[in-house]
């Protein structure tokens, strides 16, 4: 991964007062691309995310035989075309690519090798590969850790489908992967979940998007059934990424003032929408505004002191780094729980946050499934980011109140938000 000099996260010299446009949702963009590739006709995906993870998905689908074209108004993705031969898929450190694309290879007829960054080799995958094998996929481990990249999928031109058991407790993306590909199996797929699944909103997102593309998924508690069917949706417009919006949403709680985020959806399956209730619990306010010069969106305001919080983030785990940074400024102790699976994210996020916040003077301890954060004054220092985009965002939040926070390798935020540093700097420049 390319690295660059560290970035001194700017201090908020005044209350914030800014409009911030955030890029398209990673989770929605990469689902739309996968569903488009599984469809009978092409889909124009409007306002998609353009970032490392989105480009990796575009590259994966191209390698698997789907045409992907950047056109006026978005990205057009066409159906997967059959074709023999060998292909290679670069997973980078994109969970969505690593989890969503092996099933597509198993349904095709190429021999496809999957590998990516060193970090993706350590992230959980084997329960999904096991379920795909149970459904008839031919997947060969290549040395290393069994059930982890690198591995090779030998497509046999289709799979019958049927019923399969899945443990999706390490990542909701295993379940989403089977559900997204299910309509292309001859008999569809029925998944019986064992254990709990985190990130429930992302499962709702998968079911919602399947329906929009014409599938008929059904859920009965831990049993999911998606019948075989033909998908097609000529156009799909991607919502702004509400998890990428998280640092901007919490900025007024730390610095005072308000931030307007255009196009925040009134209804959404994105986990980031939960931030609206968090802001209210922390003494801030959110309002949907319709008549600003920048169009309709969400206005977030804050200003008072922050109480300590007891938060189970099981359903919204990807928000943890930014929330942990925010809670360092609370005037009472906080506990974050329900996120043991974050140890298998871009990095072990619980260990990384405890280490980095402690090094800056924080009183932060790791628990088995979360963090305990007690009030303590923070000081200047380097905030290491472990090639994790959300740690860059967390470092930026710390810098609002603590002078001299040096965020290491800020470019790694390009996984989901390539223009983050500029957008953050502009928010503070306009507000000063
Ligand atoms: O399906 C998705 O798009 C995602 C699901 C979640 O994964 P986990 O369930 O592994 O946390 C989330 O953290 C990730 O950022 C995106
Ligand atoms: C866990 C995350 O990413 P991925 O899609 O790589 O799992 C994340 O974005 O917080």
Key traits:
432 residues; alpha/beta; UDP-n-acetylglucosamine1-carboxyvinyl-transferase, Chain; 2 domains; four-stranded mixed β-sheet; 14 helices; binds shikimate-3-phosphate; binds phosphoenolpyruvate
Describe this protein's structure.
With 432 residues, the protein is α/β, with parallel strands linked by helices. The chain has two domains: 7-24 and 240-431, Enolpyruvate transferase domain (UDP-n-acetylglucosamine1-carboxyvinyl-transferase, Chain, Alpha-beta prism), CATH 3.65.10; 26-237, Alpha-beta prism (UDP-n-acetylglucosamine1-carboxyvinyl-transferase, Chain). It is 31% helix and 23% strand. It is built from 14 helices and 23 strands. The protein has helices at 26-37, 52-64, 95-100, 102-107, 118-122, 126-134, 172-181, 200-212, 246-255, 275-281, 320-327, 349-359, 389-399, 420-431, and strands at 7-8, 16-19, 43-46, 68-71, 74-77, 86-90, 111-115, 138-141, 151-154, 162-167, 189-194, 218-220, 223-226, 235-237, 257-262, 285-289, 297-302, 310-312, 334-337, 363-367, 370-374, 381-383, 405-407. It has a four-stranded mixed β-sheet. Strands 4-5-3-14 form a four-stranded mixed β-sheet. The longest helix has 13 residues, at 52-64. The chain is globular and about 60 Å long. Shikimate-3-phosphate binds next to helix 3 and helix 7.
């Amino acid at each position: 991964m390319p690295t660059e000099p560290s970035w001194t996260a700017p201090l908020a010299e005044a209350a914030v007062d800014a409009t911030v446009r955030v890029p398209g949702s990673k989770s929605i963009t990469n689902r739309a691309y996968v569903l488009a590739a599984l469809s009978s006709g092409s889909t124009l995906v409007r306002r998609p995310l353009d970032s490392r993870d989105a480009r990796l998905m575009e590259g994966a689908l191209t390698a698997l035989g789907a045409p992907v074209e950047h056109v006026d108004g978005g990205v057009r993705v066409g159906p997967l075309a059959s074709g023999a031969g060998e292909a290679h898929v670069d997973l980078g450190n994109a969970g969505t690519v690593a989890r969503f694309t092996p099933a597509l290879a198993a349904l095709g007829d190429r021999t496809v090798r999957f590998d990516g960054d060193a970090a993706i080799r350590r992230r959980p995958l084997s329960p999904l590969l096991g379920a795909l094998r149970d459904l008839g996929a031919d997947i060969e481990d290549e040395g290393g850790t069994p059930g982890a990249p690198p591995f090779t999928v030998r497509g046999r031109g289709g799979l019958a489908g049927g019923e399969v058991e899945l443990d999706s407790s390490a990542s909701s993306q295993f379940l989403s992967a089977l559900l997204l590909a299910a309509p292309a199996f001859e008999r569809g797929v029925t998944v019986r979940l064992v254990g709990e699944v985190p990130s429930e909103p992302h499962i709702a997102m998968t079911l919602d998007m399947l329906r929009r593309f014409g599938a008929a998924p059904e859920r009965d508690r831990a049993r999911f059934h998606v019948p075989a069917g033909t998908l097609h949706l000529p156009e799909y417009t991607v919502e702004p990424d509400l998890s990428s919006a998280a640092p901007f949403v919490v900025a007024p709680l730390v610095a005072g003032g308000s931030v307007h985020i255009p196009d925040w959806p009134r209804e959404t399956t994105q986990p980031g929408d939960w931030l609206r209730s968090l802001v209210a619990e922390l003494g801030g306010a959110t309002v949907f505004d319709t008549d600003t010069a920048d169009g309709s969106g969400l206005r977030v305001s804050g200003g008072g002191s922050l109480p300590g919080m007891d938060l189970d983030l099981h359903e919204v785990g990807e928000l943890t780094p930014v929330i942990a940074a925010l809670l360092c400024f609370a005037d009472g102790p906080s506990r974050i729980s329900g996120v043991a699976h974050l140890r298998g994210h871009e990095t072990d996020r619980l260990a990384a946050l405890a280490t980095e916040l402690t090094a800056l003077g924080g009183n932060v301890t790791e628990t088995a499934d979360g963090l305990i954060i007690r009030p303590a004054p923070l000081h200047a220092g380097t905030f290491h980011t472990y090639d994790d985009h959300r740690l860059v965002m967390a470092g930026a939040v710390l810098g609002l109140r603590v002078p001299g926070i040096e965020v290491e390798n800020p470019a790694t935020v390009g996984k989901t938000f390539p223009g983050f540093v500029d957008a953050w700097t502009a928010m503070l420049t306009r507000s000063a």
